[in-house]
Amino acid sequence: IQRVNPTDLSSKLIWMSPRKAILEHDDTSNLELQPGDIVTIFSQRDISLPQDDRSRYVVVEGEVKRPGVYKLEVNETLQSVLQRAGGLTPNAYVYGSQLMRESARIEQQNSLDQLVNTMEVQVRQSALSIAASAGGGDAQGLAQLQEGIVSQLRAVKASGRVALPVKPSPTCPTW
Q1: DSSP state letter for 2
Q2: CB atoms within 10 A of CB 82
Q3: What is the residue-averaged pLDDT of the chain?
Q4: pLDDT digits (tens, 9 = 90+) for 111-169
Q5: How far apart are CA 34 and CA 75, in angstroms?
Q6: Does residue 38 contact residue 12 with C-beta atoms inside 8 Å?
Q7: 113: region left, alpha or beta (phi > 0 left; psi from -120 to 50 alpha)
Q8: How far apart are CA 79 and CA 77, in angstroms?
Q9: Region at 68 (left for phi over 0; alpha for psi -120 to 50; beta for the rest)
């Protein structure tokens, strides 16, 4: 709470916990507001926290016994999350598993965008040199075809899929 003193217009910050006031009905956090008070409730994105203090979640879906959203614990592994999800069902096909990671998606998308930008420059340079030497309709048709390919590539979005090191074996992992 930011409280402004009406006499000298100075302001002071008063700490309170909305969680304690609303959910836990804690009287020490349930402060009486005064006219002119400014109440700001920050989200996790507003305040930069150390990596270990951030809440991270994972979605587990498909052939597991308890699909859902799970909060990741520090240094938790794929195997332990799958165990918390009740393990795999008898119908699970481990070799078809997909692990999607947002950081991998961003990196893949950046690489894809860079590739398309480079290709676009090469297509334009190629079209100019062909037009200068041939000077005809074939060059224009080729340039349009190449630009269409670049447009299609621009529409491709990265998935963030990460390859899992699952090796074929007579006994499937049960996690």
Answers
A1: E
A2: 20
A3: 84
A4: 999 999 999 998 888 877 776 776 556 667 777 888 889 899 999 999 999 988 877 66
A5: 45
A6: no
A7: alpha
A8: 5
A9: left
Ordered by start, the domain boundaries in the chain are 1-41, 51-96, 102-159
Length of the chain: 175
The DSSP annotation for 48-79 comes to ---GGGS--EEEE-SSBSS-EEEEPPTT--HH
List the structure tokens of 86. Answer: 């009740």
Q: Which two tokens stand for residue 129?
A: 């040199």
Q: Where on the phi/psi map is residue 25: left (φ > 0), alpha (ψ -120 to 50), or beta?
A: left
The partner residues of 71 in beta bridges, in order of sequence, read 57
Q: Which residue has the tokens 């507003």?
A: 46
Angle between helices 137-155 and 102-134 (to 10 degrees): 180
Asked whether 58 and 72 are in contact (CB, 8 A), the reply is yes
- Whether 79 and 88 have beta carbons less than 8 Å apart is answered as no
Q: What is the pLDDT of residues 59-78, one digit of tens each?
A: 999 999 999 999 888 889 99
Q: Which residue has the tokens 């000298």?
A: 8
Residue 73 tokens read as 């614990």
